[in-house]
Amino acid sequence: MRCVAASAVLALAVGLAQGPAAAAVPERVTPATHPVAPGWPAADAALRAAARQVVAAGATGVIVRVDDGRRVTRFAVGAGRLSPWRPLSPDDEFRVGSNTKMFVATVVLQLVAEGRLSLDDSVERWLPGVVPGGAGITLRMLLDHTGGVFDYAQDEDLLAIVFAEAERVEHTFTPADLVGYATAHPPTFAPGTGWAYSNTDYVLLGMVLERATGQTVGDLVDRRIARPLHLRHTYLQTSEAFRGRYAHGYVTPADTGDGYLDLSGRDDATWAGAAGAMVSTVDELARFTTALQAGWLLPPALLAQMRTTVSASTGQVVPDASYGLGLMSFTTPCGTFWGHYGSIPGYKSRSFSDAAGRRSVEVFTPTESTDAVVAAADALTEQALCASVGRSPSRS
């Protein structure tokens, strides 16, 4: 889930850091469980070196998975838990934050394909009286963040609750609660006149899905995506609990001033909801992302709509990226890839595929990122994307 205020995360870290003093994170490597085919050793060694740079920059660890369409390499560097120490594994469950939006958007578009929803439906039609001016905001605008609805994750009252408890957040939020924090603010702009990333958009889409089907978002994702793709570790988290072994997520000493602070299991996932509460693994998120791009989950016309991005003149979510319907287009020196970023306290994830769904990259860092970690992870991601198409950034 992107756009959680950095100042709020810092306040959390400073207020709660009671753990052990900072220590260097061991650069232990979990070997790949898939054999690396001939021709990959040089690229694999370069990726591992880049991954170690992410840890050297302050991350507790990093998981990397690269599929070039013929072979897969996957490995983890660093710690899955600092105390007591255990290695990070490519099989660890991981909070994938706003990668959730790809799942929710896919379900919305499946219902559009079935004639149960229309991209031109207004918010008011499905959620009467919930959003001021909802008659002028369409489902398409929610999907591509052009509706102007304020982002509830920027509301200081909400953040004060989420980051108040010393051990864990006891407060459970309903989708209506989250929307209420957003509608206490004026719109960011008139519907259709700008672009601004808003987690509220996807909470509203989750409410529409539940109204249209009578099923929860978690059940819809499970029935329509996870089960058909055999994703056993991919689910919408509705509490602080994970279902399997998981990577612990941390805030770094650069923010706490006193060691790494473990955020995993601390907060109730209901504050992220349909905007960012999914859990997955690198293998399963790759399976979903490639299946989506390969056309297994949506008809061609709706996949094309999903890839229709917002004009750069209205703003970009990250440099070199543009936004479609729950999907980012990310341009690198080695080509254009499709996917999403995910950010939720303690966890950062990147999942991208080529347009054919044949090649993919996942980079997960279980650490609240400093500028140095972000820069190192960006460099690693670009290198991995280029490796997936048999190129290197330096010779692109």
UniProtKB/TrEMBL annotation:
Q: Which domain of life is it from?
A: Bacteria
Q: Which residues form the Beta-lactamase-related domain?
A: 50-370
Q: Which UniProt keywords apply?
A: Signal
The answer to keyword Nucleotidyltransferase applying to this record is no
Q: Which InterPro entries match?
A: AmpC-like (IPR050491), Beta-lactam-related (IPR001466), Beta-lactam/transpept-like (IPR012338)
User: What is the annotated signal peptide range for this record?
Assistant: 1-23
The entry's protein name is Beta-lactamase-related domain-containing protein
